[in-house]
Fold this protein.
Amino acid sequence: MDFNKEELSQIINKVLKELDQKPSGSSGDYGVFSTMEEAISEAKKAQKELQSKFSIEEREPLITAVRKELHNHVEKMAVMAEEETGMGRCEDKVIKNQLAIDKTPGTEILTTEAYSGKLGLAIVEQAPFGVICSITPSTNPSETVINNAISMIAACNSVVFNPHPNAKKVSLYAIKAINKAIIDAGGPANLITAVAEPTLQTVERCMKDDRIEMIVATGGHGVVRAALSSGKKAIGAGAGNPPVLVDDTVDFPKVANDIVRGAAMDNNLLCTSEKAIVALDCIADKLIECLLEESVQLVKDPKPLERVIIDEDGSINKALVGKDAAYILEKAGIEAIDQDLRMVLIDVDIDHPLVLKEQLMPVIPLVRAKDFKEAMDMGVKIENGNRHSAMIHSKNVDNLTAFAKRIGTTIYVKNAPSFAGLGAGGEGFSSFTIAGPTGEGITCARTFTRQRRCILVDGFSII
C-alpha cells in the first residue's frame, strides 16, 4: 500500500506519540513491576535523572501535571477503594482524595536559608535523600500514595511504594495515573514504583536494600516498629486514639454537629478522627441530646457491641473496621433506627475497652468527668502517649491552653471537626502521613530532604 508524504508523516507521529507515552527503558506498567529488584532499580535510575536534569523550578510543572491528571480519577479511586477494602464511604473518600491532591504542598514549601557576615556567606539548601521506601495503609490507600508521591517527588526523591495487600488495586491504579502524568509532562518514567503483588516479603526486601535511603511507614505500631529497627533513616506515622473534650461553655448543637462530622468521616477510618468523647458530667446529658439530633443512635447496653467489636484475644475485630454504623448494630443484634445512621454512641466509664482501643469504626464512647482537670486526665489516658491528635470544644481560653500543654499531640484542633487539622475547613496544608512517633509531624516535601550547608569565605558580603 502506498502512502503520500502527509499520510506517512501522520503515521510516524502517531507511533512516536505512543512510544512517548510508554515508560522508556522499562518493562514495567507505568511503574508497576513483577519484582522488587526491578522496582528499586528503575526508581533509582529515575531519581538520578530527576536530580540531574530537573531543577526545583522544573519539578513544579510535573507536580502540577499530577494534580491535574488525578482530578480525573477521584471518583474512580473512591469507588475502587470502597469495593476493594469494604471499608468507609465513597462520598467521603472523594473528599479525602481531593484534599490530598489540592492541599499537599509541592516545591513551594522548599526554601533556601542564607547567612552573611564579615566572614562571607553560608547557604543551607534542602537536598533529596534518593530512593524512599513508602509503606501505605488500607485505610487511606490512594490518598497516602498521592500525598507521599507529591511530597517526595517535589523534594527530588523517587519512591518505591509498598501498598497494603488489601488495597493493592486502588494503590497501583493511583501509581500508574501519577506516572503517566509525569511522563506526559516530560518527566522521568518510574519516579514512583511498586510490585504488582505486594506482600510482607516485598516490604522486607525493600527495606533491606542498600539503594533505599529512607523508610516512611504509615500504619499501625507493628509497621512503624519494623521501620525504626531497619537501621536507616525512618519516619513513622503510627496509630492514634484521639479524644475530644467538651466543657460547659460551648454551643451544644454546633459541638454535636462538629463531632459527628469528624468522627463519622469515612466511617472513622482517619487516624485523626474523634475516637472517644470526654464530657463534663454536668453537661453530658445535654450533649447526648444534641448528638441524637445528628443521625446518632445511643445504645444503653454496650455488651452486645463489645462481643462483636472485640475479639477473644482482646484485639479489634478487623471485619468491622470502617463499616457503616447500621451494619455494626446489625452484627450486634441491635436494630438501627436508620440505615443511613452516621454514628453509634455508648455512655461508659473511662476503663471500658472501647474507650482505650483505636477502633476505626463509627462507634464512639462517651465518658463523664466531674471537672475539667479530670477531663484532661482522661483525655491523656485515652490518647495513650501516641502524640497523634486531640480535639477540644470550649470557649474558655484557659481550658484550651491547659489541655494543649497536657496532651502534647501533633495535631490539636479547637472548636472544629477533627479534619480541620488536616487542612479541611482549617488553615494549613494537608498530609495523610502524620509522623507522631518520630516527631516530623504533618509531613511535606521538607520532611523528605536533608540539609546541606555551603560556605563561601571572604566573599559576597556587601555590608
Summary: The CA atoms of residues 261 and 417 lie 6 Å apart.
